[in-house]
């Protein structure tokens, strides 16, 4: 009821506008997907069905929101770049984050059965969303380089280290990749709980795990990938090495403009035989770090 004594509470709802003329990057990330992928028996280290499902949900989002000019995904995360001039929802942060995250999640569930026909969903998955503003093209290029550097095939390794109990750690030590947290079996190891060959491996703390994740360079991750999954990084397909990049690509769809015009349209004869360019969302597995991708698509960063 207007003017009711309760209406004042609305004054507590504060606006949360985003700075104008800045790039928005929305990153969605699977919530507890380590457990989700175990429960739904994803193949490790990469499940191409799960990756394709993520791509499809991202495509649904781009179709619904023309302001998204680029998307990049790997593992259980996807980043979306919105053009600088986007006025979507009057640039209200919570509205953009909540609506886009919600649509992505519902699309993921909606299309689940198409990609996992024999695996019913055991429980509803969730994604968290965060939105970051960047002032210039340089930060955008660096952002997507950063995400691609931790490419799909290596993400499970990082996740394993981050979650690691004894087993992955044993692998790391066994293959002499990290050499931390392991000591020879002996009476001076009262805290030791797990044994592997001649080594005694102690569970490592969270801080140490984080340090390992951040300090493990690509070459070492490749070695872990082979040690743990017998997968040679160089033999993986492009999707696994480069992740998925979604862009809008102009195509000639063969549709005659004249067919869109009424019979009494004067311009119809002049347009006869020409085709109407149409934007189609395509999925690429390409390099985002070098200049080539960006030089070929200047419109992405033009605002
Ligand atoms: Mg993740």
User: What's the story with the biggest beta sheet?
Assistant: 6 strands, antiparallel
Number of strands: 9
Structural class: alpha+beta
CATH top level label of the largest domain: Alpha Beta
| Number of distinct helices | 12
Trace the largest sheet across and list its strands.
4-1-3-2-8-9
Domain tRNAHis guanylyltransferase catalytic: 6-135
Family: Belongs to the tRNA(His) guanylyltransferase family.
GO molecular function: GTP binding; magnesium ion binding; tRNA guanylyltransferase activity
Enzyme class: transferase
Q: Mind explaining what this structure looks like?
A:
This protein has 12 helices and 9 strands. By secondary structure, the chain is of the alpha+beta class. It folds into 2 domains: 191 residues, tRNA(His) guanylyltransferase (Thg1) (Alpha-Beta Plaits); 78 residues, no CATH class. The protein has a 6-stranded antiparallel beta sheet with strand order 4-1-3-2-8-9, sandwiched between helices. A 3-stranded antiparallel beta sheet has the order 5-7-6, with helices on one face. Helix 2 crosses helix 3. The two termini are 43 Å apart. Magnesium ion binds next to strand 1. The site of magnesium ion has 6 residues, from strand 1.
């Amino acid at each position: 009821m207007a003017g009711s004594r309760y209406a004042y509470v609305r004054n507590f709802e504060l606006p949360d506008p985003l700075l104008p003329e800045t790039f928005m990057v929305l990153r969605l990330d699977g919530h507890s997907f380590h457990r989700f992928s175990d429960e739904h028996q994803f193949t490790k280290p990469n499940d191409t069905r799960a990756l394709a499902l993520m791509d499809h949900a991202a495509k649904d989002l781009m179709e619904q929101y023309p302001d998204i000019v680029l998307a990049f995904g790997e593992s259980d995360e996807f980043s979306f770049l919105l053009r600088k001039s986007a006025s979507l929802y009057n640039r209200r942060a919570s509205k953009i984050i909540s609506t886009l995250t919600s649509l992505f999640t519902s699309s993921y569930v909606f299309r689940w059965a198409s990609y996992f026909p024999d695996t019913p969903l055991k429980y509803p998955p969730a994604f968290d969303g965060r939105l970051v503003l960047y002032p210039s093209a340089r930060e955008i290029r660096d952002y997507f380089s950063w995400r691609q550097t931790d490419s799909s095939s290596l993400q499970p390794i990082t996740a394993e280290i981050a979650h690691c109990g004894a087993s992955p750690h044993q692998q790391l030590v066994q293959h002499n990749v990290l050499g931390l947290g392991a000591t020879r079996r002996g009476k001076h190891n009262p805290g030791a709980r797990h044994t592997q060959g001649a080594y005694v491996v102690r569970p490592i703390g969270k801080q140490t795990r984080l340090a390992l994740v951040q300090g493990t360079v690509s070459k070492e991750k490749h070695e872990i990938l082979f040690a743990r999954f017998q997968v040679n990084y160089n033999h993986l397909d492009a999707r696994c090495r480069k992740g998925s990049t979604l862009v809008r690509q102009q195509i000639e769809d063969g549709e005659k403009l004249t067919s869109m015009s009424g019979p009494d349209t004067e311009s119809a004869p002049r347009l006869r035989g020409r085709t109407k360019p149409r934007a189609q969302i395509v999925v690429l597995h390409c390099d985002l770090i070098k200049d080539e991708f960006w030089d070929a698509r200047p419109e992405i960063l033009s605002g």
